[in-house]
Amino acid sequence: MVLVAAALLAACSSTTPNMKTEANARMEMGVNYLRQNNSPAAMKELTKASELDPGNPEIVMVLGLAYQSRGDYKNAEKYFRRAIDMKRDYSDAHNNLGYLLSLQGRGKEAIREYEAAVGNVLYQTPEVGYTNMGEEYRRLKDSRKAEEMYRKAISFNSGYAAAYRGLASVQSGKNQWTDAAKTLGQCTASAPEFWPCWMDLGAVQLRLGKKKEALASFRRVLAGSKDPALRQKAADYVNLLQSQLR
């Protein structure tokens, strides 16, 4: 272990400012390629970035995301854990590792990683970690804990639509349709262009027998969303409700 640490220290000390600058630029290119679902190009840039700046835990973590995008969960986990070993309080790496473990059905392990993420007071996006924890508790059918996590997420970021959707899903699962409608109304008010919330709101309004309100919600989706699948689903509801309201 001493030899490994010495080798890493030597590698870090030989990384010049210009190398760090190029490494960061290549990492950004890698991230952009990942967003475009171009995994081979992403891996090429990120591997080069890691060679230029081997002591950078952010590059190591993004390499984990690249492996995850390829379905290589084994290597993704290896890189996430390596990033955490390099920076113990690395909340983003803990959160990403938690999500990866969740994908593999390792729920309790995932929750521990989310807890580590949100336990860092310097974590800039705790709403993400809390929402992911809520999702995991919901999968584990612990609605009380799930609701608690979603509410914590909203308390940190009142505009985080995913937390509202999760909370509304828990409420709907308990047949608390009025509460779910209220939650989704808060979602559409806080994030008016997050169209899945409008779809969910329309479905809950329909469940409450409020057909005119539901029709208005689905029309909002048609007017604003550019997602073909979402638009088609909204159009089907609009056609159905228009025929019923004639």
Polypeptide structure, described:
The protein is an all-alpha fold and 246 residues long. The chain has a domain at 161-246: Serine Threonine Protein Phosphatase 5, Tetratricopeptide repeat, CATH 1.25.40. It is built from 14 helices and no strands. The longest helix is centred in the N-terminal third of the chain and has 19 residues, at 17-35. The chain is elongated, with a radius of gyration of 22 Å. The N and C termini lie far apart (76 Å).
Characteristic key phrases:
mainly alpha; 0% strand; Serine Threonine Protein Phosphatase 5, Tetratricopeptide repeat; 246 residues; disordered N terminus
Poorly predicted ranges: 1-11
- CATH class label of one domain: Mainly Alpha
- What would you call the quaternary organization? single chain
Shape: elongated
Distance between the terminal alpha carbons, to the nearest Å?
A: 76 Å
Structural category is: mainly alpha
CATH domain topology of one domain: Serine Threonine Protein Phosphatase 5, Tetratricopeptide repeat
Strand-residue proportion: under 5%
Please name the fourth-level CATH homologous superfamily of one domain.
Tetratricopeptide repeat domain
Listing every helix as H and every strand as E from the N terminus to the C terminus, the arrangement reads HHHHHHHHHHHHHH
What is the helix tally?
14
Helix content: over 70%
Q: Quick check: average pLDDT?
A: 94
Largest sheet: none
Structure summary, number of beta strands: 0
Give the CATH architecture of one domain.
Alpha Horseshoe
